[in-house]
Structures are given as structure tokens and as C-alpha cells.
# Entry
Amino acid sequence: MRAIIADDSELLRERVRALLKPFEDVEIVGEAGDGRSALKLVNDLHPDLVILDIRMPELNGIETLKEIRKSGSRSTICVLTNYPYPQYRDRCYVEGADYFFDKNSDFQKITAMIADLTANRT
# Structure
């Protein structure tokens, strides 16, 4: 599974990399610190998974998500945010997110998500 991590925090990207490292079937093929760069990576690399923050410079995560789906990408998209408000969650699902996790309370759920996604690929 090819993955892209898009978050403006290098520390958060590092934490996600560490979380994904034990999964031999997951390869991080790109990282972005802003929405516009994330969109370019998705269009160029066609990843299986995009882990996407909501608040990023250039293009916020919701607009990035919308553009990814508009492009026809079939990537699984996991929104990982510090802003888990119902209106953001609902909007992300409307725009095509597959998962929506709170960075503070749901971070470890990424592990279960990856395990499920990789199990379903084999």
C-alpha cells in the first residue's frame, strides 16, 4: 500500500511515519506540508492512502479532499485533525473522506485502520 502524509507539522508527520513503520506492506511515497503540494503528490503518485490534515496552508484539507475526489482518485482518505468538530467531520464525509480521526483521542486508531486496509488487499 502506497501512502502520502499531508500535514503542516513535521512532528506529526514523524509520528505518523513511526506508526506506519511496523507495517511491511505500507510504503510512504510522499509527504506534504500544505494542501496544494498534497494534491500534486496525489495526482502524480496515485497513492492507495492519503492521511490528510484539515488546517494547512495554501489549500486547506477539506478543499484538498474535494479536489482529490474531483480528480477521480480512488485513494482511501483519512482525515486526521485537531479540530474534530461535527461540522468538519460531516463536511469531510460529504466530500469523500473514508475516515475521520481526532489527533488527540483517535491517533492509535490509525493502526487498526491500516491493519484492516492491508488485510483487505491480500
